Every structure is written in structure tokens, then in C-alpha cells.
User: Fold these one by one.
Assistant:
Number 1:
Amino acid sequence: MQLETLVEKFKQKDEKAFESLYNMYRDSMQGVIYNIVRDNDIAEEVMQDVFIKAWHNASTYSSQKGRFFTWILNIARNAAIDKTRSKAFKKSKQNLDSDFFVDILETSESLDNSTDAIGIKKFVGKLAEKCKAVIELIYFKGYTQLEASKKLDMPIGTIKTRNRNCIKELRNLVLN
Amino acid sequence: MDIKAYIESGILELYVAGVLSEKENKEVYELMLQHSEILQEVLDIESSIVKLTASVSQKTSGVDTFQAIKNQLGFNDNDTKVISIAQPKSNWLTYTGWAASIVLAAGLLWTLNKNNTLKSDIQVAETQQELLETQIENSKSSLEEANTLITVLRDDNITKIPLAGQGNFASTYAKVYWDKTSQRIFLDAQGLPEPPEGKVYQVWSLKLSPLTPTSLGTIDSFTTDANKIFEIENANESEAFGITLEPAGGSETPTMEQLYTLGVVSVS
């Protein structure tokens, strides 16, 4: 089924469409959430919250405002970040390290040996530190250009083009 | 508008990341609808980001997150849950049920078959019994006839008249035992051939002067009678006995061309 059709049905609270979309994006969302909370049980909890929230707010989504993936990615990032700000989380995760997603990729034991995962590992290994940082902030953390340029101490235009070049490399690796 | 330059600016990557302003988002959306290259570019960027982020997933196995989500949302999928639990049980029941019914069916068939065999056995036995009873009955009546015959033979009052073959039928013969007191004769027709189809033997009592035949009746049971001894009423003052072959039903007067045997009562 076309993505547009699925999304349209999902907006009309079609449970099957919802499940299909869940299956399409669950791994991606899990990756984003885990990268922020760094705990499987908490990530699981946030995952549930994200999709429940998506279901309840299905009618508010509009393709004019952005991609469906982008919409659910925003919900996931915000939910995960909210979680890290909760008192209970701060207590248990005093020493939450500030590693980038690449550290997870390099140390993860559960990462399967699918072609995609291997390809991404290779790509990540070759990535310059600047690429890792930009991708981490823009996609995993949801930083705006301005926030990223401040964080990385870079001109705003450089962030945009660097990000473009980094994603180009990623695409060559995972899509071709 | 320079599409290529627009794509190369890197705005689409930021669009997918969801970090553009509402105004920029709307602009990109409208350009996507107008230019398929832009749409394709967005799809490719999205697809690569989905793969990259998914690769970080810890893939928590053993936890059915979606089931938990459905439960929390109160989706009515109790059916699937019930089935997944009840499936093995119902399978076991189904198999056992089928096995039991097959055994039962086989048993019923065997019983039915056995019953039919026994029924036909009984039928055979009954037929045999009937046959034997008939044989006994036949023997009994044969014995009775034989006994009667013996009595007749031993009786002094009985006149024995041999009937000799006549004309073309010289080789035939018969005997009449006449019990005058009981006014009956016993005809021993052993020496007569089987009558042809549609013909019967007719027995005649004769007065000789003038020659007057009186019919004593036809022998309708000639073929079926084993002893060929027939008891016939005879109240006449007979002087001779004759047997002719007549059409079925008999005739008023004897057909002399078909006179088989004839015998005169000897005057004692």
C-alpha cells in the first residue's frame, strides 16, 4: 500500500494502517529513543508512549506541515528528551554519558549482521567527526541549524551544506 | 527556479529532520508537488535516515511493544490473544476428536458388516431348514403312501388288474388295485411315459357289453408324483380299465387312437 494511503487511513483511526506504520518506523524510533535515554526498559516505555500519543493525535497530522516520518520522529525525540528531564530519570542516570549514536553502533552487541547494519557501520567508521556530530544533533537530537551552529561553533550555512554532504555519503552507502 | 541548486542547498535534509520553520515546511511541500525530482530527493533522504536510525535500535527481542500499545489503546483484539493461547489445546482436541471418530466409524462399519453377514447366515440356515422340513414331509407322505400300498397289497378283497400296452403303445403298462369295499382304485402308472405338453392321462372304467366308458378323471399330478401311484374314487361296477392320452382337462369320451393301456377285470 502507498505510504500516502496508509497515512490517510491512519488519520481516520484505521488500526491496520497504524500497525503497518508502526512496523515501518519502530526500529528507527527505537534507535532515536535509545540514543537519547540509553536504557532498554525506558526506551521501551517511551516507545509505547510515542505511538499511543501518535494514535491520539492522528487527526492533527497534516502532510503540508511535513513528512509523516518527520512528524513521528519529532514526537519520539521530544518524548525521549522529556524523559531525560524527569526527576526519576535524573536520579537513576546521574552519569549519563554524552556519547554520540556512533558509540552505540560500535559497541552494540545486539546489532544484527544484516547488510544495512554492516554498511552503516562501515560508513560510520569512515565518517569524519564533524559528520557524526552534525547527524547526531540534527537527526537524533532535533537541533535547529542555529542551535547546531552554536553547539559546534560553526557558521549556520556550513551546517546546512555539511549536513547535505554527509547525508549524500550515507545515501550512497545504504540506498545503492 | 533552479531546482538543482535548491536541492543542493541542503534544505531538504533539514526538512526531513524536521528542523525547518512552518513557513519553510509549507514551501518545500508545495515544491515537492510541482517537481518530482524534489519529491524523489526527499524520499531518498528519508529512507536513508530511517535506515541509519534503525541501525541504532537495540531491537529488544521478546517484548511485544505493539501488543502493549494495542492493550493500552483498548484495541479489540482479544480474539488473537485467545486463539494464541487456546490454539494448541484446540489442536489437541481436534486431533483426538478426529481419531476417535475414525475409530468409531470403523467400529460401526465392522459391526454393520458383521450384522449383515450374520443375517445372511441366518437366511441360509432358514432355507436349509425349510428344505429339510420339506424333505421330511415328502418322506412322510411317501411312507404313508407306501404303507397304504402295502395294506392294499396284503388285502384279500383287493382285485389286481394288470393293464397291457395297446397298439403303438405296446411297451407301456399299468396296474390297477381295486378296493371294491372302499370303492376306490389305486393306479400304478409307473409304466407310462411322461405325457407331452398340453396332454393328460385320463382313466376310464369300462362296461364291455355294450362298451360303455365312464371317466374316472384325469391324472393331473402325473409329472409331479414320485411314486406314480394314484388313488381314484370308483363306485362303478367296472369290467375293464383303460388309460388314454387326452387334451388337458380331459374328454367326454376316450380317444381310442390314444389308448395306451387296457385291462379286463378277471371274473373270479
Number 2:
Amino acid sequence: MTKPTLNIGVTGLNAIDSPGPGVPVIRALKEATSFNVRIIGLAYESLEPGIYMHNLVDKSYMIPYPTEGTDALLSRLEYIHSCEKLDVIIPNFDAELYSFMKLEKKLLAMDIHMFLPTFEQFEERHKVNLSDFGKKYGIDVPFGKAISDPHDLRDLEDEFDYPVMIKGKWYDAYVAHNIEQARSYFSKITAKWGYPVVVQKFVQGTEYNVIGLGDGKGNMLAAVPMRKQFITDKGKAWAGISIEDKKLIALTEKFISSTKWRGAFELELMKTSDNIYYLMEINPRIPAWVYLAVGVGQNIPEALVHLALGNDVAPLPAYDVGKLFIRYSYDLIVDRSEFENLSVNGEL
Amino acid sequence: MEKKVYERPHIIKLDAGMPGKFGMRAETPAMTHVFGVAVKKLVEKHGSPLFVISEESIRQSYRKAHKAFSTRYPNVQFAWSYKTNYLSAICNIFHSEGSWAEVVSGFEYNKAIANNVDPKKIIFNGPGKSDDELLTAANNGSLIHIDHLDELYQLIDIAEKATQRPRVAIRVNMDTGIYPQWDRFGFNYENGQAWDAINKIMHSGKLDLMGLHTHIGTFIMTASAYGIAATKLADLAMGLQQKFNHTIKYIDLGGGFASKNTLKGSYLPGSDISPSFDEYAEAISSALLNSSLKPDSLPLLILETGRALVDSAAFLISTVIANKRLSNGKRATIVDAGVNIMFTSFWYQHQISPAQGASQYREDTVLYGPLCMNIDCLRESVNLPILNKGDQVVIHNVGAYNMTQWMQFITLRPNIVLVDSAGEVQLIREAENMDSIQHHEKMPDKLVINHP
Amino acid sequence: MRMNQNIAISETGFLFNPSTGESFTLNPVGLKLISYYKEGLNDDEIISRMQEEYQVEEREISRDLLDFKNVLKHYLLVDNND
């Protein structure tokens, strides 16, 4: 039987020190056993390394930022589709998900498939709403509040003890040890990501992460918990190890069955010294360390593509415990002409 | 050999970074026509800057909004918010669609009367109403929305002199999870002020309590907040029913629906994230239908939405006066419309389109108005094609508040035209002249300068 | 005014400055002006050449040339000032 070849658009090609998930997702797709792929890279910036990895990415296109609105994105995708006949798109940035969710029906009408969370799931898991989320589903979350005015930081001092986490709506998180730091992080974050800013109780503990996949009907198709072994100054895992923890799997299963989560996700958890897991954040997309899941036996991107195409997917097999991922950086040598072509033509 | 078309020389430094808020911009297609009429022709005839409003666009927005509510709730009434845009022609488009008038001052009240609105269909809001204004409104049977206790007592006194019992409602403020909470208007729900005011009205025996009103804020991006507001008003209505056996005639949820403009500080554009009329209607209707209000005596639902109905129905055409280069190398363009007539550029990133074809080259530009005043900036950063002196730009979504909050600062206000449903261009407000301003000034005799 | 001689310009309007590592894009008119500078033409020569080739008034091209030169100086793409 010949395997079909799918044209898959992938974003998040920024394999830098705070990496996007695009490149590992592509590696996973290249290793899929059920189909062959032609990868179309979708990039926001001309220096995203994935664009220049020609062994992984067959063709790349620049796409407009989410700030430009969905009409601009749609017309760019229509052009790309006319050249490439995309079968599936896997968006990998938090900040772009809303736009792709908004376009889901229109893209489907063009025969471009995605498998994304619903608007309701996307909104209620948002860090701005995490406190309510925890209450609704009976999951332990740290107390948090979304604020839009730096003066509220002073009022919040009654409800929080320092240190507190100051988090942007989309990205960035800082630990503030006093009101001055909190104020300075507040303005730093709002300048870049707008309002509101989330103030969250700081939880002391060990960080664990789970990557998972829900089928949208409440079934857990994949879940691999990982403990970070080494963390960069940006808080990103540079090395991690797959672990076996029934509590974590049960929590993930509860998350999926109660929200009927649709698509891939990452749970960020903190385990305190008294063995309680606090859910710190829910990322509604594949995390950058997804290749560990592939390496231990669960090719989540491959399964995600099948879900997008409407195929039945059985729960993935058990994963290997105790395998590490160790990230490394690699210097590509790129001729100026490639950068020039991309800058002038918007594609490479 | 034929000469090539010239375009200003252009060089851009390539900065590569991570996706940020002001990253690569998409093309802004040229908008040579607004509402089917050529920009050049409009400017030729009516000058620049020029506000252009579309009758058809207003009617369509209104019908869409009305349908969103009337398909979900049995009894719906819109009241046109005069302060959003009180050009009489615009008001009358809304009135002809069936809108009542919602006014917040004696001036606006008189405007509605002059527009031949049935006084019983005028809602009189706002914290500052004079004795005379209240007496007129009471005699006319208009709906007076009480803002504070002093006004309540003022009305009880006025009831003695009035030819009929004043028809009133109270404005209620409340926590709907929205920041900031607009607690400066009306009586608070949570601390019991609102219930107190209701009791005072009922016990006075001099006022007809017709309805309950709230207006939770402005540019509300969360439709569910209206559901909370509707629930709380329904709860007050039930209290009235139980304690006084009094059935209110209406619940007025005010306005505050967001338009498609993009607020400064918002990452995603308003066109993508502002809730639709259906979302607001769903939140409000289901809250009322799910409340304990009896299905056979459901109150009339009044909506005073302004911005969301009229913002996208108007464009402002403006002309490039000059290009210059700032000390940091950034391009600046000066156009003939400033913040004096574009008040909303203080809080929106208005979308701006070129009005003539251009090449694909774009440059990051600061867009300044013509005022000799540092704050006169329409956009701090906007990606525009290469514009030349005399070119036009079209500024989007300017129908709300600009034509009421505008300032007469160092210059005169421009023409406003309406493209009517037949596609004809009608002048609905003439550009001001010296006399418009000078007319009201008085010169003491001894200050008159006489040249020999 | 002299362009930095080792600057690389492609026909697509991509400019690379090897001494600073910075890259730029140009529109066709910008590209044309730079190529004239690289040929060593002075401003008067450029202005008259441009008027022969393009539909442009002297006043307009003079004004734009002045601005363009300032930008080139700002980006350190020219050797000396004159």
C-alpha cells in the first residue's frame, strides 16, 4: 500500500533559545509511519531558523502578524494554498491561535484541515481566567487576578504576599519581590502584549509538564509527563526526562474528560513539598519539547493530523519512562542570497 | 521613449527579530471609493477633510442589531444615543427605523423634540438635569432616568407642579466583572442603594416607576457582562413585584457595545475580537428569559447602543499636506485632519487606507494632524504606501463620537456629507465659517480698534 | 556624495552593506538613485537624468533627493558628506 503524501503548513519555526514548536513538530511529521509529508513553513520573521532547514522544510512563506487581522491572514493563506494545495495547518503560537480558530470554517471550506480547541476551551483555560477554571473543574490552581491598572497592584497587596508572578496575557512571566518590581514588570509586559496582566500567587515547588492530546469527545489519546532537568534563564527546559506518575496522568485525564479538550496541549504544573500539584498554566497547543513524546513512543503530531483529517485515532501506545531529551543548538550556514530572496519575495 | 512613472525613492532597513507587537504589516489595499463614490470627486466638490456617512450602512447595522435581539426576546426597543452622533439627519435615519431617542442633556432633549420625536419616546438620562428641563420632560411624559438621590427629591418636588405624574426609571450601577466599574452614575446594586431608591419612589406615591436602567461601561469586549447586568436588574424587578405588586414596563440595558475599532493596547484587531450583536443579544436575552420574571409579563427590553451602530457607517477623508523626516530617520506625514475632529484617535488605532493606487512599497509612518500642538497625532505608527502631497487617505470607523466631541480649536469644522440610499451625496452639515464662531462674541465698545 | 563602494546591490532592490552587516530593501526609484551615485554622478546630473527617464518635475525630484540623501547618511551608506 502506498502512503499518501500530505502538504502540511507549520508555524513556529523560531528554533531559538526560547524555541517555537515548529521544527520538532516537523521532525515528528517526517517520521510519521502512516503518511509522507511535504512541509510548508509559515513564518512571521525572516530569521526564523526553520525557514533555512531545507532538509525539513520544503518551502517557506511569510505570513502577516495576528495584529493585522484575520482578513490579511486569510488572503495570504489563499495565495499559499493556490501554490501548495495545503491539506493541514498546524499553528504553534499562542498569539496566533485565535486568528486560526476564527478562520477554521473558512479554511475547511478550502479543504484545509486543522484540529484546534473551541473558543470556549481557549477562553476559559486562558491564564486570565485560570482561577475560575480551577473552581469550575475542581483542579488546584494558584490564586490569580487579571488587572489593567498598575494602581491595582497596591490594592492587591492585601490578597498576595511577595513574591508574586506577573504574567503577560500571551507571553512573558516574571517573579516580583516587591511593588517596585511588580510595577516595572507590569509596564514591561503591557508595552509588548497589551492588557490585562495576570498577578498570580507564587508557588514554590518542582516543575512538571504534561503534553497531551484530546479528541474533543473527552477521550485522552496521548499524555506524556516530563520533569524538567535543566532550565534556561528564560525558564525553558533545556533537558527533561519522561516520568511515570499516576497522579499526573489522572489529572490530565480529568482535564481532558471534563473540558472535552480538542487538540494538543501542554499542562504546566508545580508540585509543592506537600505533594500537591498546582496547575499553573494550560497552553492550548503543542509544546516545543514535543519530540520527547515522539521519542518515547507517542507521535502526537501524526495523531493530530489524523484528527484534523477526520480519521479515527486510537489512544497511542504506552510511552517509555526514563528517557531524556537534551536540546542542543546548531549553527546553520546560510548564503545571503537566501535571506535576500525571502526578504524581497516573502517566500523561499 | 515614454517616461516611467515616478515614485518617491524609498529605502527600508531590514530588522529581524522575534514576533512582536508591531511586526510585519500586511498590504492596505487602496480605497479609491467610499460607499460607492469616488474620493477624488467628493474632495473636489466638498473639500478636505470630509466626513462621509452612509445611510445604507446605518440602516443595515440597525436591522442586523434589531434582528439579533428580536429573534431572541419578544419585546425589543432601540433608543438612539444622541451623544454618539446627533446630526439631525443621522438621528432621523434611526428614528425612521423605529428608534426612540436617548438624550443626556437639555440640549439633546430639545434636539430630539425638534426632530419631531414623540416626547413619550424620549429617554432622558444623565446626572445633570435642571428644574426647567425636568418639568418640561415630566409634562411631556418623557421617560426620566434618575441618577442620584438629589434628583429623586428634585423630581418629587417637581411632581407637584407638573401636569402629569413624572414617568421615571432609576439608573443602577453594579459589578459585572468589568473594569473599570462605572459606579459614578446611578445607584449601586450591591450595597442596596438601588433598592433604597426604589422604595423611596414607591413610598412617595408621586412618581410612576416605569423601568430599571443600567449602563455598565463603554467598549465592553465581554458579552457575558451584560448577562450579569440583566440578571441583577431582573432581580430588582422581582423584588418590586413581590413587595409592591408593581410590574415595571421596561428594562433598559443601556449601551457600551464595542465597535470594530481597535483599542490602543489591544494585541488583536477589533474587527476580529469585538463581540457581534448576536453574542450580546444571546447573553442579555437568555439572562432575562432564564430569570424569575413571569413569561406573560416580560418587560420591554430597551437598548441604547450607539457606537456599534454608527462607527463603521462613516469615513473621514483627509489630504496629505507634507512629508517629513524625523531626527531618528522615521517618516512623518502631515494630513489636514487633526485630533480636533478625530477625538477618537486618542484611544483607537484607526485603520487608515490610501485613497489612490500605490506600489507595494510601504513605510512605517507617524501620521500627524495639522494643528500646531504636540498631541495632534492620528497614529504613532502605521504602515502606509508612499504618499505624496495632495494624496488622500481614508480613515475608517469614525461615525461615533467624533462629530459630537470634536473641538473648535484654531480652525473650523469641515463639511459632512451623507451618501443616501439612492447613492446621492447630500450635504448634511455645512463647513463652519468665521461667522459660525464670531456670531456669539460681543466686543466692548472701548476695545474696538478703529484705523483712522 | 559617494556611496560606500563595497556595498552590494541586487537587481531586486536588496542592498547589503558588508562593513556593517546591515541589509535594506529599495524601491525601483531608490535603486536607480543609488546606482547613479555608484557611477559617481553628482546631484545635478542625477536630477537631469531622472527627469529624462521619469515623469517628474525638477522641484519634486530635488526635494526627494535631499530627503533620500539624508536617509542614506542616517544609515551610514555614504562615505562622506558634501
